[in-house]
Structure formats: C-alpha cells, structure tokens
Amino acid sequence: xxxxxxxxxxxxxxxxxxxxxxxxxxxxxxxxxxxxxxxxxxxxxxxxxxxxxxxxxxxxxxxxxxxxxxxxxxxxxxxxxxxxxxxxxxxxxxxxxxxxxxxxxxxxxxxxxxxxxxxxxxxxxxxxxxxxxxxxxxxxxxxxxxxxxxxxxxxxxxxxxxxxxxxxxxxxxxxxxxxxxxxxxxxxxxxxxxxxxxxxxxxxxxxxxxxxxxxxxxxxxxxxxxxxxxxxxxxxxxxxxxxxxxxxxxxxxxxxxxxxxxxxxxxxxxxxxxxxxxxxxxxxxxxxxxxxxxxxxxxxxxxxxxxxxxxxxxxxxxxxxxxxxxxxxxxxxxxxxxxxxxxxxxxxxxxxxxxxxxxxxxxxxxxxxxxxxxxxxxxxxxxxxxxxxxxxxxxxxxxxxxxxxxxxxxxxxxxxxxxxxxxxxxxx
Amino acid sequence: xxxxxxxxxxxxxxxxxxxxxxxxxxxxxxxxxxxxxxxxxxxxxxxxxxxxxxxxxxxxxxxxxxxxxxxxxxxxxxxxxxxxxxxxxxxxxxxxxxxxxxxxxxxxxxxxxxxxxxxxxxxxxxxxxxxxxxxxxxxxxxxxxxxxxxxxxxxxxxxxxxxxxxxxxxxxxxxxxxxxxxxxxxxxxxxxxxxxxxxxxxxxxxxxxxxxxxxxxxxxxxxxxxxxxxxxxxxxxxxxxxxxxxxxxxxxxxxxxxxxxxxxxxxxxxxxxxxxxxxxxx
Amino acid sequence: xxxxxxxxxxxxxxxxxxxxxxxxxxxxxxxxxxxxxxxxxxxxxxxxxxxxxxxxxxxxxxxxxxxxxxxxxxxxxxxxxxxxxxxxxxxxxxxxxxxxxxxxxxxxxxxxxxxxxxxxxxxxxxxxxxxxxxxxxxxxxxxxxxxxxxxxxxxxxxxxxxxxxxxxxxxxxxxxxxxxxxxxxxxxxxxxxxxxxxxxxxxxxxxxxxxxxxxxxxxxxxxxxxxxxxxxxxxxxxxxxxxxxxxxxxxxxxxxxxxxxxxxxxxxxxxxxxxxxxxxxxxxxxxxxxxx
Lengths: 428, 282, 292
What we know:
Number of strands of chain C: 0
Radius of gyration of chain A: 24 Å
Strand content of chain C: under 5%
Oligomer: heterotrimer
Structural class of chain A: alpha/beta
CATH architecture of chain C: Orthogonal Bundle
Helix content of chain C: over 70%
Number of helices of chain C: 14
C-alpha cells in the first residue's frame, strides 16, 4: 500500500515538474483556414513580445457558433476570439464581450478612420464598440468571361434585368446539363445578398419584415433562377468539385467570396488563366448592395488577460501584418491603408471587391440573427427543392421569425420598464 | 429451426446449402463495411474517391495513421477515451456491485420498493437529464473535465440489476454461516461474495467499458475543449471538417472501433452471457 | 440494526450518484420545461419567465416538432419490424441443426453491435456516397441508376434505417437464439411425426413459443429506436430538408445549439411520455395475446 503511495507521489511530482513557463498565455480561438494561417504569424508576435505566448485553438466553421455558445454557458470562453461579425451583436447582448472603445482610443495602431465605415459599424451595438474588424468578406460574382462573351455579352451585367437576360442567353446557347449560375442550396448568403439590396429592411421594430414586397421580390428572383433551369438545385456536397466544374464550364456565374480568388488562380488550367473575372453584384436597378461580412477580433469580458490579448489584436491590425495575412490566404483587409499596398491595388480580381465594399449593408443586429438566417436558408430550400409556393414559404418564414423574436421583444419591454422605474440603473 | 425432415440425402443437403448460403450472405453484409473501412484506411490520400470505387488499396500506406497521430493528435484522444472508460469501469464496478449485492442479500427498509423505483426509472431516456445536468456540472465547475464525463456514469441501474440477478443465486446459508462465525459485512463481501460474483463482474466490466468507450452524446455535450475530446467526439468533429479525407477518416474509424472489437473477440462469452442475463431472465 | 446500517453504506454511493446525477436533473428538467430558459436567461436570470405548459403547447404548434415526430415514427415503424425480421432470420439460420461453424458466424454477425456508432456513421456516409460509394457501384451492376442516398430527402431516412438495422440486428439475434434454444425439441418431433411441414412448424410452434421473447425484443427495440440521435448528427445534420431530424436531434438543436433549454426540456419529456405510452400499449397488447 505504502509503495503505491510513494510511486503515485513520484509520478505526480514528475508531471508537475514540466517545463515551467511563466509567460502569460493568451488563449485565442480561430476558425477555418484563417486559423492555420494565423498560426504562422504567431511566432513573430511572440518574438516581439517576449513575455507573451499565444495558444491557438482551431475550430471548424460548422461547429463554431455552437462551441462559442457552449463555452459561454460553461464559463469557458477564451481570452480573444475571431468572431463572425454577424455574431457580434449576439455575444454583445449576452454581455460576453468587452467594450473596446477605450482600447481603441488609447491605441496608436488601430485607427478607426482607416476602416471601411460599413464594416466598422457592424461591430457597434447600441452605440458601443465590441470588436475590431480583422478581415472583410462579402459575396459577389465570379464569372467566365469567355463563356459570357460567347453568349453575346462583353461586360458583366449591372442590373437584375441584364443579369436575367444574360443567363437566359447562356442557357439557350449552351444547352442542357450546363447552367448559367451556381447557387449552392446549403448557403444562405446568395439569397441574403439579394434581400439586402431591397429598400425594405429585413426586420423592423423587433418584428419580422420578411413578408415585405422587397423580400418577396428577392425570393422571387432567386427562386426564379432555379425554376428557369438557370441554376442547378444542388447543395455544395452534391457537386464533386466546384472549382473543376467552374473551369469545365458547368456554370458561368458563381456567387462566392474572396477566398475563391486564390483558389481559382491556383486551379485555373493554363488556357483559361485569363478567362475568368470578378464583378460586383447587380442590383434591382443598378449595382446592388452586398453583405457587410467578415470577422472581428473580440475580447471577452471575463478574461483575466485583456491587456495582453489587446496587444495581439493590435499586432493583427497592423497594415503590414494584414498584408502578410492577405498574401497567405486571400482574405480582404478591412483597412483602406492596407488596400493601398501595391499588390492589392494592382489585383484585378480584388478590385471588384473593393468596389462592392463601398456598398455593403449590415444585417440586423439581433441575438437571434444566426437562427433567422438558418430559417431563411431552409425557406429557400423548401421553395426550390421542396416545391413549396413562394407565398406560403414567405408567410411561414415571417411567422416563424416573428415567433423567434418574441422573447427579444419581451426582454426589451422589461428593460424599458426597469429603466423607467429606476433611471439611475446603468445600462448593461 | 426444427429438425430437418430427412426426406432423403438430396433434400437435406439442399437445405444445408441454403442455410449456409444465408449465413455467409449475412456475414458478408455484416463484415463488409468494417473490412472496407480497414482497406480504405491503408489507401493513399484520394485513393478511395475514384470511380469505380476500389476494394483494395492500390498501395498500402500508413500515411493516414501517421497523419492522425502527428497532425490531428489522435493519440491524445485515444488516451482520453482510455482514461475515461477505465475510470468509469473501475469505479462503477465497485459501486454497482455493492448496491446489487445489497439489493439481493442485505435487508434494509424499503429495499423492494426502492428497487422497483429504479427499474421504473429505466424507462426514462437519459437525454431528459442531460440539459439540467450540464447546468449542474457547470455550477460544480466540472464542465469540460474528465470528471464531468465520469461522474454521471458512476452508477448504472442496468448494472445494479445485473449484479442483483446474479447475486440472488448465492446461497443464503453461506453468508449466514459466515455471520455466525463473527465475520463483518465487509469481510463477507470481499472474501466470499465477490469471488462468487466474478463472472458477472467480468461481464459488467466489459459492458461498462464498451458502453463508455462508445458513448457519444454526453461527452459531446460536456467536453467543450478539443484537447479533452474522447475518440467518438473527436471523430465526429473531424468528419465534419475533413469531409474530403475519406482515407484519414477511415483510419480514425479503425482506431475507434478496434479496441472494443478486440475486447469483444477475447471476452465474447461473458458479454453475451450478460446480455442474456439482463434481457431474457427479466 | 447495525446490519441495516451497513446495507445503507453498500447501497448509498449508487443511490447518491443516481439521485444527484439522474433523479435531480430529471426533476429539474421538469421544472425547466415550465419556463422559457434561453440565452437571455443564461445572461441574466431576470430574463426568465415561468410559462407553465406554454412550451408544450407551443411545441404542439411547431411544424418542425411534428416533422421530427413523423421522421422518428417513420424510423420506428419501418426499422423495428425490419430489424426484428433480420434478427429472427439470422437466429433461425444459426439455430438450424445443420449449421456448422456456429461460433464463427455468431461472432461475425454480432460484431457490428460492439462497434462505435459514430465510426460506423462515418463509414456509412462514404459507402453511400452518390458517386464513389460502394453501394451505388454495386447497384449499378444490377442495373439500378445511382441514388443520391444522403442528398435526396426521400432516401436519407432509409439510409439511416439501414444503418440502424445493420448495427443492431446481432443484439436481438442473440436473444432470439437463446429463446429458440429454450423450445423443447420434442414439440418439433411430435409435429414431424404428424407430418407437419417446416413452415407449419415455424408458424405453430416456433413463433408462439417465442412470444415472450418477441415481446421483450420488441419493447427494447422500439424504446431504443425512438431515441434516434447519433446517426442524424454524424451523417446528415438533419438534412436534407430536415427529413432526418429525429425528436432527440430536434431536442439537441433546441437545447445545445440555440440554448432554449426550457423548450428542449419540454421536448425531452414529450418524447419520454410517447415512449412510455407506446411501450405500455405494446405490453398490454402482449398480455392480451398471452405473450407475456
């Protein structure tokens, strides 16, 4: 018995005697490919800040939202995190995020005026700043210039009407088993982009506004493309390899994001190297708005290492570091000064994104947004694949989103009532 | 089935042929996915995503396994699973056996009523408890720890039931005689009862180990940090990320399935015995 | 008296663990289901409302809940008879006196039961891939066009049913085997002497004698199949078009994806009541037919 105790003590002692590291460890969660690339930048940060260490955890995008909420529920959030900017309002309302305005004001590196306004604004909830944009993201058109020209168009369409006409011409010319456009049914961004181009807001006064003429028009245009056989009713997993199919000519237009600039460049066969391009999204009557997407760097309120974590935020916000990051991964920087770097300035494909970024609109800043957007995606799938009528679908979507927001309306009313009763109580 | 009607050598041979054909067909169906899993795990990356799908590797490579251990850190997940499953098995074995013996042989107030209550509780699916259990463990600071996975599994109604079933067959006279001789209850338990319960203990240990090794939903909920993942949870999260890497996913599947399969092959007699004890003699 | 105290010490740890980590949460789940506990409440408990049976009523008006119920019933109604048929068939084959290498076959047929469900779900996803899967390749040889197993709303649930049957038939097979071996051989002898065909012997001796075993297997399988979760979670995430959302998957999403813990607890209790009702009905039916 005693022998066992002695052995145990030795074992415990040995495990405790690991390399003693008295650097401050910053816990950083990052998602997707960005996590891999940022990992390569960490050694430079650690060299510049000898007392700090960054511990990176990679999380796949498909699990990120759940993991973050679970960590929130379990009081196990990291110090700093890459957060999709549509999630910033959610975590701000949960009181999980540290307001960053004081940090920004004191910082010489993070210069608010240098950032695209629409993007910076996505991080402001109820007048307070909760995140610093890390990279921007939006959706626009990738297209095959040669196939478009063959159908009789020498420039990409600028309005929905032009777009429709071009797609119809393409389909007529190229025949069956090819399509004019690819809109994967597992993605919501395409319908959302079209919806944001309307004048009607998506939500209004805490209620759904999705049965508005604007959204109906967007859904009609979207579903119409499938009805006319211009788009295949498939999700991404059903297409074996999107890039191969693009260069095989399976479709001419593809609404996707900036990461595909690199991918297309990499995978273009030699004879099609200059046969593709990017263009801003057409809108109902002229170039249209897009999603003000991207991710931000946020600090969590309960972190005991906020000052150290902020140093990492500053590091990642330096224009030359952003340039390095962009060179590695193709994500677009949120600072105008970074865009001035010769490489980005001269990039013909990025130019369309630069243009689109001036016309991006934020999504509604509600806690339930992630869920609302899932409902929207399901609605589009039901209409396109499930055969549900657009009218039924819109009304069902409107009702379910209304129901989703009911608690929010109640909480809001409670907050108003409490403020009226005790006006000295500070807002959360 | 019934005894063969011997209407002649030809007929019974035809019958035997049918029976064996059926068994072989079923066996093939049973084992084919597992064999394919093994085969693909040795294929080079991208080897399985071809048409027609290959049955055997064009060239046998250990790259997938190496990638699992070096890049993905499967070794850590394996260790987590081993640690958690062992802890649950050892601790719950003790707790369940003590309780099962008590329900079978020791008298105390309300013994039968409490046991009936436990049996009734078997009907409640465990998922009902999961949500509040998560909140409770969060208050106790046990979320995202091995303890959080282990603690709810420390006692199992099925285990107690199994032990009780078996313990009832221990002759009362044996225990009474020991008591008369002045032996304390603990001595009786460790010196007399446990050795007699050995078969059901082995069975219960196998059941518990395999059950906790394969457990998925609860570890998925309570382990928030990737480093603490057990194999099934790691495999599930990997399968979402690396949906294209068939070969590596199959290597991960092999790693997850092999330990329990081997355990079963070695100790199947006990396993099946326990299965029957629990299900038929109810 | 002292003996009684010792008894409590023996039984104590188990009862404490079960009470604290099962009984208490179940009770708490009941309470939770009467509130609208969600992310807002998690952030600030003042945002918690007591809603009585509000969650239950809302659930009964939620289309996705009914869809998940329908999907689960589909799974049970098709899966359970299929599983029992295959298990019984395998047991009959194994029990045939002419069968040789019984131990080997029994082990092989039982192997799927002990494998990890998550691993098997991953394997299944690739086996049933529309372009590179072995299943479509095999079907192609018989002249059947490739089916989009996991992408077509019509075929996704059947794929899951096949997985469940494959994985579990060994378990019930072993139970049936024990039941078959318990049937006295002289019954068959007497029937054979009377000239009864093998099929008649099956219907008039085997099946009736298996009555109690069929009941047990039926109840266990039904109760287990109602708790379908891991397969949709790993293989399909409820897609396509939510055709593989089971009740438990719906509960998991409500509870651990959207953190509507009140609503999710209500789902869990509803599921429990449904399982209880159906298995009670099955037992009553069995008792009437003299199977218990």
